[in-house]
Amino acid sequence: MSNENLRKFTSAQLLNFCIGFFGLQFAWQMRIILSGPLTESLGASPLLYGLIWLAGPVTGIVVQPIIGALSDNTFTRFGRRIPYLFFGALFGAIGLILLPKSEFLSSLFGANHPAWLALAIAALFIWVIDACVNAAQGPYRALIPDNIDKTQHAIANSFLSFAIGLGSVVAAGAAPFLKWAFNYQMSVDAQFTMAGVAFILGMLWTCFTFRENKATKEETTEIKLEAKKSASKPFIQNVKEFLSTSPEVGKICLIQFFTWIGLMSLLIFFTQFVVHILYKVPDTTNLAQNVVDIFAPIQTEAQNFASICFAFFNLICFVVAIPIAKMAERNGNKRVHAISLLTMALSYFLIAFATNTTMVFIAMGVAGIGWASTLALPFAMLSKYIKEGTEGSAMGIFNIFISAPQVLVCTLLAWFINISTFELEGYPNNHWDYAFLFGALMLIISAFVTLTIKEKEE
Predict the structure, then answer these.
(1) Cα–Cα 20 to 30 A to 443, which of 114, 171, 183, 364?
(2) Residue 458 within any structural domain of the chain
(3) What are the phi and psi torsion angles at 424 (to 5°)?
(4) How many domains does the chain have?
(5) What's the distance, CA 301 to chain centroid?
(6) CATH of the domain at 184
(7) Which residue range(s) make up the domain with 446?
(8) Mean pLDDT by 10 residues, the chain (458 residues)
(9) Is 433 helix (H, G, I), strand (E, B) or coil?
(10) What is the pTM of this model?
(11) Cβ distance 269 to 435 under 8 Å?
């Protein structure tokens, strides 16, 4: 729709708008924290764990562009994007609830079922969860250029960062808080169930309270024509046209490519780093059960600490999300984003060389600054170049440059960690700390690319 028909939102309306994203991030954060220990307990090596993590980027590359294009061409009485939010959350919640029951589900195939079956079932549910998160996330992002005035795109995306930070804090902090306050250790099963409930309830709130703009008859016809025109082209042609919109679009995509290599180095491997490097728990996949039992209490303590660190990481994201948007309005998106990325790179070096838990905790808080910026400012810069009627498709294509670099992390970096072994007090272990050195380098490259952007003025 023409810009003059897009309404300006109050702060209260923006808060209401992002409740569904709170639920989505709550679910994804729980999947990030607990999928590593869960799959390792079922026999996954570092390399196999990385390959299972391919669920996120592969479904992002495949699902988001398809769903984005479909949502551009969807015209229902419920809206263009809302149906995708609802069904993504519904099936994602089912996957979250069933994931920790993989061992039980494998037992239904008989007492002599293959040892790898439980891990295969867990991997399947992880793929379902990530596909559903991607199916909901792209159309949710597209609601901003669809419905909100262009002058508010940076602040609207920052409110989503705010919701991401808050959802992650609550998800990561729930189990450690219950342990600290009531000496109650929440089971992995209960935590995943909580995540599934949060996902569906948060998204239902958005589906029922957010009303998409109703275009005039002429505008609806124009949007449909543009959407159909985009959908009729080969996908690769749409990608080329998207990148040729402006030289700056290509640069923004390159920023995301390097940034998300760096980010996933933390998101995928941080819990394993805490368990195996900081708390010195060896690789238990091939150890005798009596040895595994000795290290089990330490591993649980390490997982709780990792959750606390993720909570602090996202708390900082939550706190600085809106101030970062305000700073970007005054000083420009690129300057604020470049500084945020360099700050995050510094925190990675602190984590890699940390000698105690306090250093790691503080460094994770510092990294939250870069996380808040990444979740908002690249989208704000890109939204100025999106053609009306193709918002969903554009967000789907843009997501390729978020998802594709994750494939490198899940394969090459996971493989490198897998072969980088050493002995810890006579037991096998891996250099999970290498993930942060590599990630820091990627963030530095991304920061320098950001500084080359020539921002489009309104």
Answers:
(1) 171
(2) no
(3) -120, 105
(4) 1
(5) 25
(6) 1.20.1250.20
(7) 3-450
(8) 67 91 91 83 82 78 76 78 92 94 89 84 91 87 84 81 83 86 88 94 93 61 59 63 75 92 91 90 77 81 88 86 85 91 97 93 95 86 72 72 84 90 85 94 96 74
(9) coil
(10) 0.72
(11) yes
